[in-house]
Amino acid sequence: MQLTAAVSFLTILQDESVSIHAYTHSFLQVILLHLEHRDTGVSNAWLETLLSVIEVLPKETLRHEILNPLVSKAQLSQTVQSRLVSCKILGKLTNKFDAHTIKREILPLVKSLCQDVEYEVRSCMCRQLENIAQGIGTELTKSVVLPELIELSRDEGSSVRLAAFETLVNLLDIFDTDDRSQTILPLVKSFCEKSFKADESILISLSFHLGKLCHGLYGIFTPDQHLRFLEFYKKLCTLGLQQENGHSENQIPPQILEQEKKYISVRKNCAYNFPAMIVFVDPKNFHLELYSTFFCLCHDPEVPVRYTIAICFYEVSKLLNSGVYLIHKELITLLQDESLEVLDALIDHLPEILELMSTGGESSVQENKLSSLPDLIPALTAAEQRAAASLKWRTHEKLLQKYACLPHVISSDQIYYRFLQRMFTIMMTNNVLPVQKAASRTLCIFLRYNRKQEQRHEVIQKLIEQLGQGKSYWNRLRFLDTCEFIIEIFSKSFFCKYFFLPAIELTHDPVANVRMKLCYLLPKVKSTLKIPADKHLLQQLEMCVRKLLCQEKDKDVLAIVKRTVLELDRMEMSMDAFQKKFYEKDLLDQEKEREELLLLEMEQLEKEKQQNDGRPMSDKMYEKKRRDTKTPTQSLPKNIPISVPGPSSVTPSTSKEIKKSKLIRSQSFNNQAFHAKYGNLEKCASKSSTTGYTASVSGLGKTSVLSLTDDSFRTRNASSVPPSFSPNTTLPSTSRGTGNSLDPKSSGSKDTQPRKATLKSRKSNP
């Protein structure tokens, strides 16, 4: 009841349910009354409420109701609990009064409590000195607080000395160079020297604050002192690893186990401070001074230590900059770690780490794109398989999402042969929906940056045949998810060319959930159309919706269809020519289309070079050109329409040199698209609006067609699709040709039995 009341009083204050005056009159005395409750938990709860109340109370109320009674509460004649409460209240009150009031009324109480006979009170007051120092300014801190801290750092109680040390470290920025070198540095040296002889809890605190300490005292160390602190840090990093007790785990005495836990905490804190220590020794000296320590932390036998160093790995990579190649092997080690917790910590910044690995360091590292790290791809694939075999599907999902950065760091062929098929397998066999969607989106990004037309067509064919026309309704649902990612990542013309008809064919699907999911997707599908080029596709779309309205038997699907028809009717059609209203979206789509065309031109150039020189143009040459060029469309003013030069615009008499110069001018697409992190693709969802439907869907709808008189705008009809987009291998027919004649037993269930799934959202097992 007391705990609930304390929380309720605090909620009334935070919600401003009553005025401050009414709150003071009605609630403040109740709070003060219960501060010395015999139960420590109850007392602490009321104290937390009071400390929050102090923030909003006026000065006069604080003086009369809290500060004045505090003089008697802080006396030695009061209980220890009362004096502990007084310490915390004094720390909070300091920021509410001017320096004169603090010096006259508060500081005498602070000094008295710092000299208290009980070590708990001295320790508690010592920890409040940081707040008091921030409230009284630099001068009073040096004259009043610093002497108290020096005296407390020599206290007989270890907890008091520890509190004094931590407060000194947190106040380093307030003191000038003379105070640091003449007063604080000797105290720190003495503390470090005595730490191994004292309680291990002091070592835990020291190891945690060592990075901040070295940073705060940087510049005043002599070379000898610098070396001693570095050696002290190295010793802490291996603390407890040299001891062999010779006992099995069940035979280890409890005190030894407790000691080992403290040693693990020390090494974990050392891993946490490793980036700060790189700054301390200078990144240029990393290999000589700290590499062996980094190696030990990455191979530490305890998971918490490796987990912490995995979290810091990105910071370490950034600090090393051109020396990042030195920690290639440690990256592989952490990727192959047996603990999924370590892997999960590492992959949070995996795209950034791999980008630094591929672009940082010497020119050979840049050109070869991680070719100096042959174990990277096996380590990445093994990490994914370990995550897939575990029950931690969120780690698996995150890893698949991060793999979307791979086109930026390894070659297209490596992705195709080592990762792309695995994405297919996950989409087809995994039972966790978020994992399947992550694999689907990553596969779409792999497809987006695949450089070989034959491979792209093979992937598209498998998507349509194995997912869109698959026997399992679950696979057909995943095909619609993939279509949504295709619309987001690719140009409108790409979706219309390969996926428009297979998608709308699912209006005939025998499973209600598939038809329902398609209805939700139809507005995005329609947004990919441009008039008049895609007029025939618009007719197909309207025909499918009309059939759904007339023939749909399922009431849930029919309700969604009716809502979708109204939404489609409100959409505005996008034109082939640029419209001012949708200029940025159209420009973004045209940039996507230009990049897709550029892929084909690059492939053609590679084939020509193979014929002429007998050797392929390597990925590193492509990357070098992309880094040396910029996309011209970015510098054009927005009022100038931009045409997309396709292969069809090149006459037979065009020389190879002109073709190559055009390629060089615009060859930055891949690096540019990923330069602001691959996650920026999420901003590229094309939502260009369209019109066309009346509520009854009785015809083509009222579509205003803009007459095209400017040759700079390419219409996208059947004849204007770039010849280079035409597949060398015949894609499967985009019409499933099955309609409702499909055997419901083979296509109406995830396996063989037809059933109507429950709809709307299918949540994966946690």
TrEMBL record:
HEAT repeats lie at residues 106-143, 145-183. Residues 640-655 have a biased composition (Low complexity). One of its GO terms (molecular function) is protein phosphatase regulator activity. Residues 605-659, 714-766 are annotated as: Disordered. It is found in: Cytoplasm. Keywords: Coiled coil, Cytoplasm, Phosphoprotein, Repeat. Its main location: cytoplasm. Residues 605-630 have a biased composition (Basic and acidic residues). GO terms for cellular component: cytosol; protein serine/threonine phosphatase complex. The keyword Cell membrane does not apply. Residues 714-751 have a biased composition (Polar residues). Residues 757-766 have a biased composition (Basic residues). PROSITE patterns: HEAT_REPEAT. The keyword Cytoplasm applies. Putative regulatory subunit of serine/threonine-protein phosphatase 4. Serine/threonine-protein phosphatase 4 (PP4) occurs in different assemblies of the catalytic and one or more regulatory subunits. Component of the PP4 complex PPP4C-PPP4R4. This is Serine/threonine-protein phosphatase 4 regulatory subunit 4. It comes from Sapajus apella (Brown-capped capuchin). The gene is PPP4R4.
